[in-house]
Specification:
3 helices, six-stranded antiparallel β-barrel, about 35% strand, Thrombin, subunit H, ten-stranded mixed β-sheet, mainly beta
Length: about 300
């Protein structure tokens, strides 16, 4: 088995920076949009998770195309960072069943939920504990984790696309609605965060730092080490002129991933060559970012 991909950097980096992945959507060779995705470890291997609107190219509520020229993506490219950049192609069309999407939607909410999953068991050789989300990672620590209105969180993704270096950008925000109350009868809570286009599909995290004190059942507990807790998936702002954003709850992601692991068809992600790069080697430029940057490996 091949070694897991780990970024080749000099010095310290936070492990959460290795979880978020850059994703770009295309129609043919025409770039349409960029976003963020990540992998969740299931009982049947890695599952890619992102927003539904990233793959459909449409507003998830109105169904209107998001691209100025009404372009709808038919494939996407995911970038994984290691000693170099590795790019993987996602075919968004099921060519045998054109009316059926290649992704898996939520088992009960379906298209109403702006989250989708792709089982990618074959990527188990490069996706592991260090660069994925484990929904079971805190179960042994008990169910005492609690974040309330005003609690700090991090949206970790790629605002305005991949803007340099091998890692995503951390955007600090705060829980803006009662986290146990569903918004619009959907498993969503609101955050107050200066998030921007390109962060759609970002994992949202809360964390205890070493020494933080939490009160649970009348007792105080002090964290002995830094602890990260996955809260859900960011899917955009409530309005374009607002800093209020939507987060699909962790419980909803668990239901989606478990459903995809059992009922989803394993997706083959083909490796491709990509002209665009944001590595520290100096390849990054605005010209290459906005230009034609996709090329199949021959």
């Amino acid at each position: 088995m091949k070694e897991k991909i780990e970024p080749d950097v000099a010095g310290f980096f936070d492990t959460l920076s290795g979880v978020s992945k850059h994703i770009r959507m295309y129609f043919g060779e025409v770039p349409l949009a960029s976003g963020t995705c990540f992998f969740v470890m299931s009982a049947d291997g890695p599952v890619l998770v992102t927003n539904r609107h990233n793959f459909t190219g449409r507003d998830n509520i109105t169904g209107e195309p998001l691209h100025n020229n009404c372009g709808i993506p038919n494939h996407a490219v995911v970038t994984l960072h290691g000693p170099g950049e590795i790019h993987y192609h996602i075919d968004l069309l099921d060519h045998e069943n054109p009316d059926t999407p290649s992704w898996i939607e939520h088992p009960t909410l379906g298209a109403e939920a702006d989250i989708v999953a792709l089982p990618v068991k074959e990527m188990a050789n490069i996706i592991g504990e260090i660069n994925s989300v484990s929904l079971d990672s805190v179960s042994s620590q008990g169910n005492w984790h609690r974040w309330d209105v005003g609690s700090e969180l991090q949206v970790i993704g790629y605002p305005y696309g991949q803007i340099g270096g091998p890692f995503p950008i951390w955007s600090k925000g705060f829980i803006a609605s009662e986290p146990d109350v569903d918004i619009a009868c959907l498993p969503i809570f609101l955050i107050d965060c200066r998030s921007r286009p390109g962060q759609s599909g970002s994992p949202v995290w809360a964390r205890f730092r070493k020494g933080d004190v939490v009160t649970h059942n009348g007792q105080d507990y002090q964290a002995k080490a830094n602890m990260n807790y996955f809260l859900g998936v960011y899917s955009g702002r409530l309005r374009g002129d607002s800093d209020l954003g939507l987060v699909w709850k962790r419980s909803c992601i668990e239901e989606l991933v478990n459903h995809a692991a059992v009922h989803g068809v394993q997706h083959r992600m083909e490796r491709v060559r990509h002209r665009f790069s944001a590595s520290s080697g100096g390849e990054f430029s605005l010209e290459s970012f906005v230009g034609d940057d996709f090329e199949l490996v021959t």
